[in-house]
Design a protein that fits this description.
heterodimer; A: 199 residues; mainly alpha; Arc Repressor Mutant, subunit A; 69% helix; B: 423 residues; alpha+beta; Phage tail protein beta-alpha-beta fold; Jelly Rolls; 19-stranded mixed beta sheet; three-stranded mixed beta sheet; 25 strands; 24% helix; 32% strand
């Protein structure tokens, strides 16, 4: 039987929502172990599988402030991954139909034109958006991500309240997501909202 | 009923047992509106029913996790436009070549079986065009004799002090017959511009030399370490030997020490930094400061030890050749910077492709100049912008430059050996 959710998932998600990288790693490995073989059987290219896993978790990570509002994280992760698989296969059909390389057999080259490009562009767009953060947001972001400070420590260091720190980070994440949406790099929001509404 | 059918097709496709007719049906569903076909949800449903991998290897996925976690750490100036150089136009170009006719298609598909890089398309009848580089090198023996390897067939190249040098299918290897430590001699493999070469060292280590590079090595390793000297760029697959560390020296700049691993060293002196990229295993990169070298090249024990870093797979160490390290946010940089990179990009050259990721025009041109053995001249201001894309190294220069046309870079080719970039 498929393994269901992590037993301490709620607590894990709460930690991830604070930006805890270790908690995120547990979450990442848990779901990657569940998904990667099956994604591989659909995608047939090792680079393509890594691409989809990376993109899936980039989206999870960039929505971390909203994770505590998600009741079915496993279902959410699978939704993102399956959409990415679908997009990948569809693109493959469009790009390579006339090259006749789209077949039920494995590509042994492990590479196709679309591999290893989209996720890189997303990461680039994310760091550009981080670069576009202004004033207080940027300062808090640097302490939070570059220096890896805990939110409470940021509050102490800047002499502001913890809730201000939390709000600033949430605003920054929303700003980054907004910029990504404008560049067309995001899963249709309606998909994610469907999960958020449950809470 | 319809959903059952689609699930069945997903199952068959995933199992690799889908028939031709079913594949056509599956492709049709993939192209249909996902709202109507419900395919994404069905893929999700299919994924939900699967078991997890019992032999899951966390280490394999660590670089992917790192990339995700690093994505929002670094701020990046967004003032330069990122230009997809080849990706789109290249694809269109490849498609155009293929649409020529069924003959081309047949040629293509028969060729795919032998060539491991199926993105490389070659046009056969091109007059007046700069051809791509190819395999070839010059071997310099200890006594100064030079042997041009392009023109030789398979077989024994030379016998020298108990070592036999063999050439087979464009790759050179060494067989040692005498085990006398007194007879160590050095050979140097040099690739001119427009040539690359694969050599197997006496310990079994494989080295791929990129264009305009050289590697100096003993024809037999003995003593405490295996030491080679590199200029230019090479990809190493070092044979494991814990007793004898393998050391790559880039004169006056860096030393890379390994036990047995795969890595790439880009030490072209016209590039801004010396980059060591690790694919497997572990390596230590140390900076060699010039003032720590005495006249005879022996390193003295300076007061300040040279900077050193140990790389993890997927990481790249950069030593800035200008000695003026720069970071994107202007903070003070260490003398060796370490960052995550896409290793496939770094060794693309070895696998027959150029890959550009945020490269400025001079960086693109430096690579083209080495492979096509051409000069590059800029008339007026150098066009700004960052280029991204991948293209086969088997194309002719004109075909590669085709991709540039769409990026508003103007150029002309003079005498078949010079690219003049116009303002």
């Amino acid at each position: 039987m498929p393994v269901a959710s992590l037993h301490n998932e709620k607590e894990l998600l709460a930690r991830i929502s604070e930006g805890d990288e270790e908690a995120f790693s547990v979450f990442f490995y848990h779901y990657t172990a569940q998904l990667h073989l099956h994604i591989a059987s659909l995608i047939k290219s090792p680079a393509g599988v890594e691409e989809i896993i990376q993109e899936t978790f980039l989206r999870v990570w960039m929505h971390r402030d909203q994770l505590t509002g998600i009741d079915y994280p496993r279902s959410w992760v699978l939704t993102i991954a399956s959409h990415l698989c679908f997009n990948y296969l569809r693109q493959q059909v469009r790009q390579e139909k006339h090259l006749k390389v789209f077949a039920g057999t494995t590509h042994d080259t492990g590479e196709s034109l679309q591999d290893a490009t989209e996720s890189k562009e997303i990461r680039k767009a994310i760091s550009e958006a981080v670069g576009n953060l202004s004033g207080q947001r940027k300062l808090v972001w640097q302490l939070y991500r570059e220096q890896g400070l805990k939110q409470a420590d940021i509050a102490r260091q800047l002499d502001i309240s913890l809730s201000t720190v939390k709000n600033t980070i949430a605003q920054s994440l929303e700003f980054i997501r907004q910029q990504l949406r404008e560049k067309g790099y995001w899963i249709p929001l309606c998909l994610l909202e469907a999960f958020l509404k449950i809470s | 009923m319809q959903d059952q059918r689609v699930l069945y097709l997903i199952e068959r496709y995933a199992a690799g047992s889908i028939s031709e007719r079913e594949l056509a049906e599956f492709m049709q569903i993939l192209e249909a509106d996902p709202q109507t076909s419900g395919l994404p949800e069905l893929i999700k449903h299919w994924l939900e029913e699967r078991d997890e991998d019992p032999a899951f290897d966390q280490l394999h996925w660590q670089p992917v996790l790192k990339k995700v976690l690093q994505a929002d750490k670094q701020a990046r100036a967004a003032n330069l436009p990122a230009i997809p150089l080849f990706r789109r136009s290249w694809f269109r170009y490849a498609a155009a070549v293929l649409i020529i006719g069924s003959v081309a298609l047949f040629w293509w598909s028969s060729r795919r079986e032998t060539k491991d890089n199926d993105e490389i398309v070659r046009k056969t009848d091109h007059q007046q065009n700069v051809p791509p580089g190819k395999d070839g090198a010059i071997l310099t023996l200890a006594d100064g004799t030079q042997i041009v390897l392009d023109s030789l067939g398979n077989g024994e190249v030379v016998k020298e002090k108990g070592s036999v040098v063999m050439l087979k299918d464009g790759k050179l290897s060494y067989n040692n017959q005498v085990k006398d430590p007194a007879t160590i001699v050095y050979n140097t493999m040099t690739t001119p511009r427009g040539r690359q070469f694969n050599v197997q060292l006496p310990d079994g280590t494989q080295v791929w030399l990129n264009a305009a590079s050289s590697l100096r090595y003993p024809t037999r390793f003995s003593g405490q370490e295996r030491k080679v000297e590199l200029t230019g760029e090479a990809y190493f697959e070092v044979a494991k030997n814990k007793q004898m560390p393998f050391r790559v020296e880039v004169k006056g700049l860096a030393e890379i020490e390994v036990l047995g691993t795969h890595f790439n060293v880009n030490a072209y002196t016209d590039e801004p930094s010396l980059n060591t990229t690790l694919l497997e295993g572990s390596v230590q990169v140390s900076e060699v400061k010039e003032d720590q070298l005495r006249d005879d090249g022996v390193r003295t024990t300076g007061i300040k030890p040279p900077a050193a870093v140990v790389l993890q797979p997927g990481e790249q160490a950069r030593i800035f050749i200008s000695h003026q390290p720069q970071t994107q946010n202007g903070s003070v940089a260490r003398s060796i910077q370490v960052q995550q990179v896409d290793v496939k990009e770094v060794i693309a050259w070895k696998n027959g492709a150029f890959v550009f990721n945020d490269a400025d025009l001079p960086a693109v041109m430096r690579q083209l100049a080495r492979w096509y053995d051409v000069e590059v001249e800029y008339k007026g201001e150098i066009p700004k912008g960052l280029f991204n894309g991948k293209i086969g190294r088997g194309l002719t220069l004109a075909e590669v430059l085709e991709g540039l046309k769409e990026t508003n870079v103007k150029y002309r080719i003079e005498n078949g050996n010079k690219i003049v970039v116009l303002p």
